[in-house]
Amino acid sequence: MTKFVIKRLMLSVVILFFVSMIIYGIMRCMPTSYVEQQAMTLSQKPGAKSYQEWLDQLNAAYGLDSGVVQGYFTWASQAVRGEFGDSWYFNQPVVAKFSSVIWYSFALAVLAFILEIAVAIPAGIAAAKKQYSVTDYTITVIALIGISLPSFFFATILKYVFAIKLGWFDLYGIVGRNHLQLSTVEQILDMAYHMVLPVITLTVVGIGSLMRYTRTNMLEVLNSDYIRTARAKGVSERRVVNHHAFRNTLIPIVTLLGGTLPGLFSGAMITETLFQIPGIGYTSYQCVIQGDIPFVMFYMLFSAVLILSGNLIADILYAVVDPRVRVN
Question: b vs e for 268-291, b when ≥16 Cβ sit within 10 Å of the residue's Cβ?
């Protein structure tokens, strides 16, 4: 297993190298006049540097005054040291801005992820146990609705019903107007209160695929020969389902759950934008609209690292959930 992890890490470094080169190449496709426009905008802010100083700094920081290959290695040498430059739109270091918004997205994604697992997997198992029953059809319909609903449409409905009509929640934001006057516990509850609708949106939209995936794999396992043998020996149905069948159902589910790691940190851009949650998704959307190249480059590179890490974790978990799987 150790050799396997080391090999995968080395391969991930190579993949990340080419991914970062592609990201940098796309950035270099931007016209030079665009960088000049950004330098002009930054120079007009109170207490900012002059236009020529900003232009020289931006060109030097990202190697825009040299060839693509040389410029990439100039940027990469700084990125390896954790220096990703300053955000053009927020006028502060990229890493500092990222650190201040990532935990909003993480809290939002973790809550939705826990609810998805808590609801989807038991519902999928229940549907498989009672195939072609009312329970199965009901769960299937709910799953199809969750798969079919776009997040922006469902979020708009929730806002219209619970925020505009009923007035139970605020339309936008992560905190209320009197947030600073509240105690620490009350501030936490205030933020949790504002996360209710976004969490419901992410849970309902993401629950359908996991529910259907669990049901399909559970049906395949329940129809296996060793399950029939266990039932013929008089093993209780609960033990057959929970001990024998469910463990083998976890093998393909691990692949699906391993791919959710990027979503825990990369943010839900559409949902966060609709509710104006100041997470990494909404921040990245603002940076894309404003042409904040340093932040967008860092965000894309960070997402690539998460995807590679998620695939590695999924491979390792195979051996955890199934003793028959051993990596040489």
Answer: bbbbbbbbebbbbbbbbebbeebe
**Do residues 88 and 109 share a domain?**
no
| Same-domain status, 85 and 105 | no
- Domain total for the chain? 2
Residue 274 domain boundaries: 95-293
Instruction: Express as a percent the part of the chain with pLDDT over 70.
Output: 91
Q: What is the pLDDT of residues 103-162, one digit of tens each?
A: 888 888 888 888 888 898 889 888 888 888 898 899 989 888 888 888 888 888 999 999
At 179, the amino acid letter reads H
Assess contact for 104 and 276: CB atoms under 8 A.
no
CA distance 259 to 154: 23
Residue 317 domain-assigned (yes or no): no
Whether 309 is covered by a domain: the verdict is: no
**For residue 62, which phi and psi values (nearest 5 degrees)?**
-115, 15
- Closest Cα to residue 15, out of 238, 327, 315, 309? 309
My answer on whether 137 and 178 are in the same domain is: yes
Q: Which of 96, 90, 26, 97 is nearest to 62 (CA)?
A: 26
For residue 30, being part of any structural domain is answered with: yes
- The amino acid occupying position 129 is K
Is 327 within the bounds of a domain?
no
Instruction: Map residue 65 onto helix, strand or coil.
Output: coil
pTM of the model: 0.78
**DSSP SS3 for 188:** helix
